[in-house]
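Bug #2210: token dump truncated for Na H antiporter?
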Amino acid sequence: MEILYFGVLIFAALAGGKLAEKMGLSNVVGQLLAGIIVGPAMLNWVPSLHIIHVIGEYGVLLLMLNAGLETDVKQLKQNMKAATYAAVLGVVLPLVTFPILALMFGIQLQTAIFWGIVFAATSVSITIAVLNEQGKLASTAGSVILGAAVLDDVMALLLVAGYAMFIGGSGLGPDSVMPLVAFGLGLLVRRWSGSSHFLELSNSIGKWTLFPIFFGSIGLMVSFDNFWNEAVLLVILTIVAVATKYYGAGWGAQLAGIGKTDSRAIGAGMISRGEMALVIAQIGLSTKIINHMEFSSFVIVIILSTIIAPIILRPLLEQVTD
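Reproduced locally. Full output below:
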């Protein structure tokens, strides 16, 4: 029976991803929504089984390994100053704002800090697609976004590791540090001449099995219990998630000497949360730092930010310099 559940989840996630792409959305959004639809929150075709989440964890590790394999350290040298400023301010602003917001809602300090870490992470997979679509990937804005995204991912992982030290190891165990290890391993393997073939193979394996299981399993954990009671919080979280990245990364780029128009595009390009934020949120749930209600809210906000980002970015890219 478990094999059947896996089959349904993978099929639904892959189909959802394809449908999302046709609608101009991120593949990840489609897979997440598919998990929500077939999971306990809606159709209840696939229960939230422990084995599904265990296999999904391997998807996380492969995802982070591939992130390391795809990270071009040389890319950081191009527009390094602007990328650094955009990444740092784009991380600092949500890292400060979300804990304050959480404390206002009565969340304990330890958990409030984790809120900031979750929303400090950025995913630019959808941004890269939009940049490619409009031929702006090699533009100044495109280059800064790519460089900032690399730094952003590294900082997000370091924040998780630092948080583990902050709480004295009581919440995050060795399993929680494994994504960081996988990312580092990817960076090392990238130096090998055959790394491109290895990346192609691991991407193929992940694309058809582990990735849809991971993203689909995230959807299985979403609950709409007390959804309407949390509607105001969801709206606030989404607005803050969009604003902190847009203004944080945008201001950072401007401080580095990038023009206002390009800086706005850079800010918009950093709005989307995705894989990294989901990985961090998953760590928080599995280690009981956040509860299921918070986790569900985070997933919904991550989905909304991924949908909103290209809507803001597309018109701004038409104005940027090449």
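Output looks complete on our side. The mean pLDDT is 84. Marking as cannot-reproduce; reopen if the truncation happens again.
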